[in-house]
Design brief:
Elements: E1 4-7, H1 17-33, E2 36-41, H2 51-64, E3 70-73, H3 78-90, E4 94-97, H4 101-113, H5 129-137, E5 143-146, E6 152-157, E7 161-166, E8 174-176, H6 185-194, E9 199-203, H7 207-219, E10 226-230, E11 233-234, H8 250-255, H9 260-269, H10 282-288, E12 299-300, H11 303-315, H12 319-329, H13 334-341, H14 351-359, H15 371-379, H16 390-402, H17 406-418, H18 426-442
Parallel strand pairs: 1-2, 2-3, 9-10, 11-12
Antiparallel strand pairs: 4-5, 5-8, 6-7
Helix pairs in contact: 1-9, 1-10, 3-6, 9-11, 12-13, 17-18
Length: 443
């Protein structure tokens, strides 16, 4: 049987690095098994769900390298959700409750004060038809709870191994709000059944929910899928990312010039037994990646790590990898400049700074004690044409003429030519500058 996985974001904001982790974990699983990946928007909250966010999520996933085989929207499947609701009501597994939020909160506090777990007491099951009618006459509208069987639910988690969730210690979950709208659980389970989802791979914060969801699959006459719960990606302090805060949104990372593959690899490999190291593509990584490699410990990520890792990825790019992007950036002498400076870039678009340095003008730096040396360097600057050997020929000549060597020889030249104490090897940069520009900066 072919595997089918899904990523089901709510289009209520931009996805961030933490959201990208389950999306990419599922994509890895689909690539590894030759299965299908479904992008399914959990957009039943019509007030908060926005098309602009759904479009942005599609764009962000495509940028990361995820190519969904199917696109689904839960808001278009209400008839299926309603049919499941009616079946559960008919079977006595879905029942109406009339308590207000304040009443429920007082009951929980009372239960805690008496040393009991603050779970729902199923008082609504004891209501007579007359009592229900009286409550509705007061203007109360019911929310609907799923009646759990109160048992040990066992499942084999592809990440965490054998798991047991005791639904006897849980409140019957609310599946339908008082306004008739569905919460996450019912549409998700119904759609997983109808779409043939074989594996549900998601964050470890959903482990406890799995017990109730397995009971719901069974109540609807379906075999539950296989579950896998990976560790959550957090920042260096252990705090989770947030749509509301805009923490490391994929949209922002793309606009800031990070490499898509670098972002994807950080999101996938952090908190696994595999090192965060460059790979040629997600397809190549999928061949060696296994979901069981995910650690049980925290997946902490320091944003500073992304900068360093992104630079490593950029340094490994060839001119052919980036020539179209350089053309979009309007870079002149793109191939020669790329070959000269790419190992000094943190992001591809940083090449524009080096283009400005090459084309000038720059504010050169010449210390008083180096002025005579720089004047000599200008006098002995070789005639063109220049190549990568010109730098060594010139500096060897200056070494013999002035007796300078090492840093005393090279640093004053670098500062005079570029205005910076660091940068690409001057043997590759010198031909790009050309003799006229060099004479101007040495004068």
């Amino acid at each position: 049987m072919s595997t089918v996985v899904r990523f089901a974001p709510s289009p209520t904001g931009y996805i961030h690095l933490g959201n990208a982790r389950p999306a990419l974990m599922n994509w890895m699983f689909a690539l590894k098994t030759g299965g299908q990946f479904i992008l399914r928007f959990d957009d039943t909250d019509l007030e908060r769900s926005k098309k602009e966010y759904a479009d942005a999520i599609e764009k962000d996933l495509a940028w990361l390298g995820i190519k969904p085989h199917r696109l689904e929207r839960q808001s278009e499947r209400k008839a299926a959700h309603d049919a499941a609701r009616d079946k559960l009501i008919a079977d006595g597994r879905l029942y109406p409750c009339y308590e207000t939020a304040d009443e429920l909160d007082r009951r929980r506090k009372r239960a805690r004060a008496m040393g009991r777990p603050p779970i729902y007491d199923r008082a609504a099951l004891k209501l007579t038809d007359e009592e229900k009618a009286a409550l509705e006459a007061e203007g109360r509208k019911p929310h609907w709870r799923f009646k759990l069987e109160g048992k040990e639910v066992h499942f084999d988690d592809v990440v965490r191994g054998d798991q047991v969730v005791n639904t006897d210690t849980m409140s019957d979950p609310v599946l339908i709000r008082a306004d008739g709208s569905y919460l996450y659980t019912l549409p998700s389970v119904v759609d997983d059944i109808d779409m043939g989802v074989t594996h549900v791979i998601r964050g470890e914060d959903h482990v406890t929910n799995t017990g109730a969801q397995i009971e719901l699959f069974e109540a609807l006459g379906a075999t539950p899928p296989t579950f896998g719960h990976h560790n959550l990606l957090t920042d260096a302090t252990g705090e989770g990312f947030s749509k509301r805060k805009g923490s490391l949104s994929i949209t922002n990372l793309r606009e800031e010039g990070y490499e898509a593959l670098a972002v994807a690899l950080i999101a996938i490999l952090t908190g696994t037994s595999q090192p965060v190291a460059p790979h040629e593509s997600l397809d190549e990584l999928a061949q060696s990646f296994d979901i069981s490699m995910v650690s049980r410990s925290a997946a902490r990520f320091d944003p500073a790590e992304l900068d360093g890792f992104n630079a490593r990825m950029v340094h490994g790019l060839s001119y052919d990898d980036v020539k179209d992007r350089l053309a979009e950036l309007g870079v002149d002498d793109a191939e020669q400049l790329w070959n000269a400076v790419h190992e000094n870039l943190q992001k591809v678009h940083d090449i524009r700074d080096w283009q400005k340095l090459v084309s000038g003008p720059v504010e050169t730096v010449v210390a008083d004690e180096d002025k005579d040396f720089i004047a000599t360097a200008a006098e002995r600057l070789p005639q063109e044409p220049w190549d990568e050997n010109t730098w060594s020929e010139w500096t060897n000549d200056l070494k013999a003429e002035t007796g300078r060597k090492g840093k005393q020889l090279f640093m004053p030249l670098r500062l005079a030519l570029t205005g910076q104490s660091h940068g690409p090897e001057l043997k590759t940069l010198l031909p790009l500058l050309g003799r006229t520009a060099c004479l101007d900066r040495l004068s």
